[in-house]
Write a structure and sequence with these properties.
Oligomer: single chain
Strand content: 15-25%
CATH topology of the largest domain: Purple Acid Phosphatase, chain A, domain 2
Number of helices: 17
Number of strands: 14
Helix content: 25-40%
CATH architecture of the largest domain: 4-Layer Sandwich
């Protein structure tokens, strides 16, 4: 038994039947469009009836529905050249290009000037860009790809020149001696003005007391956040100050403390980035060059002044980020065929005793090979202050390594020196943070 329809609902149902579209229905019922679907559903469910659906929202929509089947404005059936093939279309396009060599021929301009419909040519070429490619007006896809490839390599030519400049300093100041037992002191990641002053004091004084055969600065003695992925306000850039700090507070005191030692600097990711910016003359480097004219790799890094070998095997023309990291990983140094200094932990794969830096945390790993037997690999702590605003520096370790080597028997004893929150101890010599040095 059908439910009796109320008078108000009768009015609504009649409105649905009389209206031509949603706009009419809203005017009749004095409601908003958003309420129509809900009203229709209620009436249909309540009385078991079906009411009209309005697929068109207005008379304007009805007009658009009619128009969408009409011929597009860009198409004129009278201009369609059914007998034309690709060659005729290309000839027409080339004729227009040759007649107006200074004009860029667009799709719309060609449609107006050519006198042919778009369907005459797009059935063969699809897009106007492809039409122009086939007509020889613009480069084909393979030609454009080759052009981009050439541009990429041309943009790297200045890096290749820098390769030659860097690599010539690799063994300029080698200092040989005939001693069987050698000492190499290695420190990593000092990061210029971000260095821990107490660490620097302990490190330089240890070098002065030990007088090692070799001092190896295992990458990232520069920080230079101006060139890093960490954003630095250009108004507070101090590139020159940082470079001078490395010269005057690290390299000069080291050379004065150890005038006979060989000092090697392994290129880390920060030095690599610095020299790429030097090639590109970025805004930060222009600020440097404005004060330090005639800048070269040697002057920038203090190589000639402090007689330092620069270990830089990486190809600076590496293009992608993964390739750059792999290239920087080539900047390692092997000493006496039994000890390696490497900036990254991948150095362990070389299969000999050694150390790496970069991660600012001390780790000692026992390893084994048929050549060296059981040996150690140390990831060194850093020289960077542990209060770093851009990462969790409080989890880092400060420290360096004194490496004792039997060059004849190829045996290595790695002595790691932690520089702690309050003190450090090197060979019985105590150093206290904030106090005068004391000897036990």
């Amino acid at each position: 038994m059908k439910k009796k329809i109320s008078e108000s609902d009768k009015v609504r149902i009649e409105a649905f039947k009389k209206a031509d579209n949603v706009t009419d229905l809203c005017n009749i019922l004095s409601v908003k469009k958003g309420s129509i679907p809900q009203t229709r559903t209620r009436l249909e469910e309540k009385y078991g009836i079906k009411l009209p659906r309005f697929g068109l929202k207005s008379d304007r929509d009805k007009q658009l529905k009619h128009l969408k089947f009409d011929t597009p404005f860009s198409e004129d059936a009278g201009k369609f050249k059914e007998a034309w093939g690709p060659d005729e279309c290309i000839k027409k396009l080339r004729d227009i290009v040759h007649s107006e060599p200074d004009r860029v021929i667009t799709r719309n301009y060609f449609r107006v000037i050519s006198g042919i419909s778009e369907s005459t040519w797009d059935r063969y070429f699809g897009t106007f860009d492809e039409f122009k490619r086939q007509a020889g007006i613009i480069l084909t896809r393979p030609q454009h790809a080759l052009e981009r490839h050439l541009a990429k390599h041309a943009s790297l030519d200045n890096y290749r020149e820098m390769n030659l400049e860097r690599q010539k300093w690799g063994d300029t100041y080698v200092r040989e001696n005939n001693k069987r037992f050698k000492t190499i002191i290695v420190a990593s990641d000092l990061h210029d003005i971000e260095v821990d002053e107490f660490f620097l004091e302990v490190f330089i004084d240890t070098c002065k007391r030990v007088q090692p055969d070799i001092i190896n600065l295992n990458g990232d003695i520069f920080d230079l956040p101006e060139f890093s992925r960490f954003t630095v306000d250009p108004r507070v850039w101090d590139v020159v100050g940082r470079i001078k700090f490395v010269h005057n507070r690290i390299l000069r005191p080291l050379r004065e403390a150890c005038p006979d030692a060989q000092i090697d600097l392994n290129e880390g990711n920060h030095e690599f980035r610095l020299l790429r910016h030097l090639c590109d003359s970025t805004p930060a480097m222009k600020a440097v060059l404005s004060e330090l004219h005639g800048m070269t790799v040697s002057k920038l890094l203090g190589l000639e002044e402090f007689e330092i070998n620069y270990i830089a095997k990486a190809d600076m023309s590496a293009y992608q980020a993964r390739d750059i990291k792999a290239e920087v990983g080539k900047n390692y140094k092997v000493y006496y065929d039994c000890f390696v200094t490497h900036h990254f932990p991948e150095g362990k794969e070389l299969g000999m005793p050694g150390v790496n830096g970069h991660h600012h945390r001390h780790l000692a790993t026992t390893m084994y090979s048929e050549v060296f037997g059981s040996y150690e690999w140390h990831q060194l702590g850093c020289g960077h202050i542990r209060d770093a605003s851009y990462c969790n520096g409080e989890k880092w370790n400060n420290g360096f390594a004194i490496n004792h080597i039997d060059a004849q028997e190829k045996y290595v004893n790695i002595e790691y020196v932690p520089v702690g929150r309050t003190m450090a101890c090197v060979g019985g010599q105590y150093y206290y943070r904030g106090y005068e040095d004391e000897t036990s």
